Amino acid sequence: MSATAFRQVTQDRSLYVPAGLFLVLLCAVAFRGQGLFTNNGLAGAILVATPLILTALAITPIVMAGRGAVDLSVGPLMGFVNVTLITWLVGNGITHPVAIIAWAVGLGAAFQLVQALVIIYVRVAPIIVTLSGFLVLSGVNLMVMSRPGGVAPDWMLSWGAGTSVFSPVLLLLLGAFAIWGVLRGTMFYRNLRMTGADERMAYTSGVQVDVVRIIAHMVGGVFAGLAALSYTALISSGDPTQGSTYTLQAVTALVLGGASLSGGRGGALGSTLGAINMFLISYLLSTFNFGTVSGFVTQMAFGLILVGSLLVNVFVISRRTVA
Amino acid sequence: MGSEITVRMIDVAKAFGETRALKKCDFEARAGEVHAIVGENGSGKSTMAKIMSGVLHPDAGKVTILGEKVASPVDAKRVGLTTIFQEVLVADEASVFENLYVGRDGVFRSQSTGDRRTEAAEILARLVGKSVDLDQLAGSLPLSIKQWIVIARAILRKPQVLILDESSAALDLDSTLRLHAEIDRLRAEGATILIVTHRIAELVRIADRATILRDGITVGTLGKDEITEENLLSMMTPADRRASDATEYASRKKALEAPLILTATGLAAHRSARLFDFDLPKGSIVGVAGLDGQGQDAFIRALAGIIQPFGGEVKVRSVDTDKMVPLRSLDDAANLGVSYVSGDRKREGIFPQQSIFENLAIGVYRKKLGPLGVIRKPTLKPMFKREVDRLRIKIGSPSNRITSLSGGNQQKVLIGRAFANDPQVILLNDPARGVDLGTKRDLYRELRLFAEKGGSVIYLSSEIEEFIGFADRVDVFFGGTLFRSLTGEEIAEAPILAAMFGKARDASVDFDLERTA
Amino acid sequence: MISTVLNTEIGAAGGSSALRKHKSISIGFCLLAGLLILGALLVPGFVSPQNARSILLLAAFLGLASVGQTLCALVGALDLSIPYIIGGANILLPSLMVAGLPAPVAMIVVLVLGTLVGACNGALSFRLQGQALIMSLGLGFAAVGAVQIYTSLGSQFGGTVFAPVPGWLRNLSAFNGKFFGLPFPPVIVIWAVIAVALGWIMHNTWFGRSLYAVGGSRTAAARLGISEFKVWTVIHSVSGAMSALTGMLLLGFSGGGFVGVGDPYLFTTVAAVVIGGTSLLGGAGGYGATVLGVLVLTVLTSLLVGLGLSFPAQQAVVGLLIVPMVAIYARSPHIRNQI
Ligand SMILES: Nc1ncnc2c1ncn2[C@@H]1O[C@H](COP(=O)(O)OP(=O)(O)OP(=O)(O)O)[C@@H](O)[C@H]1O
Ligand SMILES: [Mg+2]
């Protein structure tokens, strides 16, 4: 798998920047100390980074489908799955793993199916539909659970211990990659890219653009469900308030990963790299101590790094179009 | 060679809101024929093509393609009908290869047979005349190559019925001939080919029959021998609108002796090309010709201040000081009264969400600014009306969106935009792309009038017959440089063609373009 | 006031399809009227000077914050730095005053800084197009982080700043503020003046028209000699300035600086733009439409509050209503009609 990933990085120039940034950050983190490169460090990192990686993956197919379809609803959707899981299922004594996983994945896919149908048949710009989804779910989440609380099912508590690299959380991540890998191997991936790059061209050439869009959304929904599972494992409870944060982080990760929000360009590898880079930036900043203003310095530095890497992206992209 | 009917439309009607694009359309085409569909801009040709392809559904009437009903592009693909739409649909962010095979497979499953890459490389080499890198992004390619990609995409599907909606409009002469060869091959294999075109020479050369549309009604079908410019014109245009006849002006040698208004020295289209000089006498019309990629496009864009030439300098006589002033940027061009009309209207012309009025007027706002950049609006309405009348633009309400106009009428709005500025020099980069014959004549007449009043015109065209009886001088580009200037008697097909292929002055060209006029 | 703005918009006969505009605007008005009638019927005390005043006051803040969002949407960008600049201005102003700057000078400093952040934003992001929103997010983080570092130097509270707010600033935007003796806060008038001026500028100046041109087609605009760089920089600067202004006025409203005051404006500004009918993809819409959107949103919220809905429920209802409201007049054509 890493071999194909490597080949992709060397072929696709939009991955140069995220891959380069990744290496730089990795060196910087190593330079700051060995904390991350121990079993516990890595296990903790996987635990913390997985929800972010999975939400970034969740919006990847949707953004790729074009029409400026940035899925703003992804964070609240993850939160929705999380709080309903804790309140409705666990709260009513349903804790069987199959039921929990089916609920998470099914709910994510169902919600995205609804959004896709609204986008296709009501024909309102996708970003407006997902903005609406964002607001609705943000509200509903707080109605389902007014403040963070509840407990995850017993069997999930050990997931969040962060003591082993090969935890079930890693399995969630690998599961998502596997799904994506299978899709990439089919014509769906190319149809998706073409739909995103120029929908009118794809439509007139006989691509079933509506079907492609629906599948893209549902795959995104499944990833959002997996993200919710990993998030539940991470906090071992329910939290209705983090939706907006995760949406912004996921979109940022996507852009840092070299995807184009106007469709056609991007992929799971880029989004994953983007998300890992975001995690590494936060991790790196947390190794410094700025005293009382620490939080603010982190925020500022994070913003500046974002700006910097976007500028490098621009440089690479504009070089590419000239070439 | 069957002659069974493959495409049939009976009593088809289609309206877009108030606009009735097709009123009563009857049409039949047979296997193994090239059938042309002709008509003025906005007469409903593209609408007809879209209905056949299943993109649009007719309001009334019956359409059968190879005996089946086609309700969507997916159906069309199944039946074996492929359409090359008027707008060049290419995904800029995807590779050439992906663009060629888009839509060939199912949602998940590949329908692949054989080696697609070899097949793709072969067909592009044959059509474009040189090999094209399959992995580069299509966005960086010029319009003519994009047009070839679209054509190649259609031909790769081995269609039973192929519809080409003005597909040769972006192609130069040499390319058009290659396209015709391809069409001949398909015809020989028994396919039905429907072509929509405004190029009479092309029609005469290749069409077996032609069906004429006028204001959404099919007014008749001509057999091969009846296809002549006059026949077509009289059927396309109602008598009362047939105003300008084909008055042939002679090339005016005298115009070329006037003082120069624009000079360019030491220009080159690319590093290795030979340097050349160019001058434009006031009140003259200079045609610019050349096969694709011979530097004429870069040249005219450099004159407009859009791109920087490799070295050299462009100077224009300033209206105020009567001195030659260097032109280096778009701002200089605007100040010196140099207007530019692009043939690629979708990309660098229209503002799709804006009204027809805004699209025309936006070119003059800058000249009508009061203090603080406030636009003096009252002067705009008469100007708008003048340009619409002058170019006979067929519009509904000025406040309708420009996209509600047919392609040709959109182009006329852009030409109006350039005229509205009262420029000294007007640069037209293949402006007649997709413009109907009547309008072309109107355009030539207006440009002549403009020149007689002292304006100067540089007119780049990919159709050489456009220059004859219109231009005072024709400058032919070859190998990135100005290869030859032709005046007077030399402005005729053979010498222009010879120069376009870089041949000596009196050499004859191996192929002849039959032209009945 | 709205009608004035709208009139200048419609009055510009060539502006954009008058019929479409009439349609979307009359539907907007109907929606607003419908909400007002519903409120009058369902909520006691809905039709009262107090309620009108509070609706207009809240609308003024949202309206001012949405100026930049509208302009950005017209070129197809989103400005996500708005909430952060609002929050930053809201705490920077009092801490500058604590540091001894006279209030007007401090306000000018804050306004200039806001404009500068906006200008950076525009200058850096015009090449990014669709990705610009992340650039604005990054700059927003950086700006608010820097402000908080400054305000918390020598104090424990980074996020909240207490300082005596001068009476005139409080009067500008407090609920019981007076406008030359009239019983409404001057911020409403400020908003009205800015709205009318902006509506007029958009339709009657070269700058306004070039904004629409860039939003409609970048290449075609470039051919007309319109500098995309200039347009992006100016609109983002305006957005920064307006956000800073909103942040400062909010200080008068609440009386104490709090960095989080801007947070609700992250997506409500987008919602107001969208409900008004400005396309987020650029080229179509205007501030007049956003004014309508702001009013609809504020009246709707007020109605929901009157009906006793909690904040989360309000948010959910607003979210649910956005799609149908936009669908009434801003449905995109079917792909069949776009070929
Ligand atoms: N999607 C649409 N919405 C509204 N009006 C349309 C639409 N498509 C076409 N029309 C109108 O229908 C008429 C026919 O248009 P059509 O594109 O078929 O003309 P055409 O014969 O192809 O012209 P051209 O030679 O300029 O390409 C025109 O008046 C045009 O304005
Ligand atoms: Mg047409």
From TrEMBL, chain A:
Q: Where are the transmembrane segments?
A: 15-35, 41-65, 77-94, 100-120, 127-145, 165-183, 211-234, 246-264, 271-290, 296-317
Task: Look up keyword Cell membrane and say if it applies.
Answer: yes
The cellular component terms of Gene Ontology attached to this UniProt record, alphabetical and capped at eight, are:
plasma membrane
Compartments where located: Cell membrane
Keywords tagged on the record: Cell membrane, Membrane, Transmembrane, Transmembrane helix
Membrane topology note: Multi-pass membrane protein
GO molecular-function terms, A-Z: transmembrane transporter activity
Q: State if NADP is listed as a keyword.
A: no
Report the CDD domains cross-referenced here: TM_PBP1_transp_AraH_like
- Reading the lineage from the top rank, the first entry is Bacteria
* PANTHER family the UniProt entry points to: ABC TRANSPORTER PERMEASE PROTEIN YPHD-RELATED-RELATED
Protein name stated in the entry: Monosaccharide ABC transporter membrane protein, CUT2 family
Natural source organism: Rhizobium lusitanum
TrEMBL record, chain B:
This entry's Gene Ontology molecular function terms read: ATP binding; ATP hydrolysis activity
| Superkingdom assignment | Bacteria
UniProt entry keywords in alphabetical sequence? ATP-binding, Membrane, Nucleotide-binding, Repeat, Sugar transport, Transport
Q: Could you confirm whether the keyword Lipid metabolism appears in this record?
A: no
- Matching InterPro entries, A to Z? AAA+_ATPase, ABC_carbohydrate_import_ATPase, ABC_transporter-like_ATP-bd, ABC_transporter-like_CS, P-loop_NTPase
All copies of the ABC transporter domain together span 7-240, 256-504
Q: Which residues cross the membrane?
A: none
The family assignment reads: Belongs to the ABC transporter superfamily.
Q: Which PANTHER family match?
A: CARBOHYDRATE TRANSPORT ATP-BINDING PROTEIN MG119-RELATED, GALACTOFURANOSE TRANSPORTER ATP-BINDING PROTEIN YTFR
Q: What is this protein called?
A: Ribose transport system ATP-binding protein
For this protein's source organism, the top of the classification is: Bacteria, Pseudomonadati, Pseudomonadota, Alphaproteobacteria, Hyphomicrobiales
TrEMBL record, chain C:
Topologically, how does it sit relative to the membrane? Multi-pass membrane protein
What are its GO cellular component terms?
A: plasma membrane
Q: Where in the cell is it found?
A: Cell membrane
Q: Which UniProt keywords apply?
A: Cell inner membrane, Cell membrane, Membrane, Transmembrane, Transmembrane helix, Transport
Query: Recorded GO terms, molecular function?
Result: transmembrane transporter activity
| Name this protein carries in UniProt | Autoinducer 2 import system permease protein LsrC
What parts of the sequence cross the membrane?
25-43, 55-78, 98-120, 132-151, 179-201, 231-253, 265-282, 289-307, 313-330
One Pfam family from the record? BPD_transp_2
Instruction: Give the quaternary structure.
Output: The complex is composed of two ATP-binding proteins (LsrA), two transmembrane proteins (LsrC and LsrD) and a solute-binding protein (LsrB).
- Recorded source organism is Rhizobium giardinii
Q: What task does this protein carry out? A: Part of the ABC transporter complex LsrABCD involved in autoinducer 2 (AI-2) import. Probably responsible for the translocation of the substrate across the membrane.
